[in-house]
Amino acid sequence: MNNSQVINTTLIVLGGALLLYSISVEDVSPYFKIIGLIIIMLGLYRATNYWVATKDDHKDENENDKQ
């Protein structure tokens, strides 16, 4: 697995954990929800940029196999 994929997955899981914590505990600062949401969105943004950058990699491999 690529290092950037590990970072993206970690950000998404960490943000989700913060959101779940802030929902389950009664007296928690609303900043936990905001920070959790920002971390999830950052992880998703990085993941979609990685997917867009590597979406045509399989086409290059198929062209090399045909030659």
List the helices and strands and how they pair.
Elements (H helix, E strand, L loop, with lengths): L2 H22 L5 H24 L3 H10 L1
Helix pairs in contact: 1-2
Structural notes for this entry:
This protein is mostly helical. The chain has one domain. The protein contains three helices and no strands. The two termini are 28 Å apart. The chain crosses the membrane at residues 6-24, 31-52. Keywords: Membrane, Transmembrane, Transmembrane helix.
Summarize it.
Keywords: Membrane, Transmembrane, Transmembrane helix. By secondary structure, the chain is mostly helical.
Number of β-strand runs: 0
- Please give the radius of gyration in angstroms: 17 Å
Helix content: over 70%
Q: Secondary-structure element sequence?
A: HHH
Report the sheet with the most strands, covering strand number, pairing sense and barrel closure. Answer: none
Q: Which structural class fits the helix and strand makeup?
A: mainly alpha
Low-confidence stretches: none
The percentage of residues in β strands lies in under 5%
Q: Tell me, rounded to a whole number, the average pLDDT.
A: 87
How many domains would you count in the coordinates? 1
Keywords: Membrane, Transmembrane, Transmembrane helix
Transmembrane segments: 6-24, 31-52
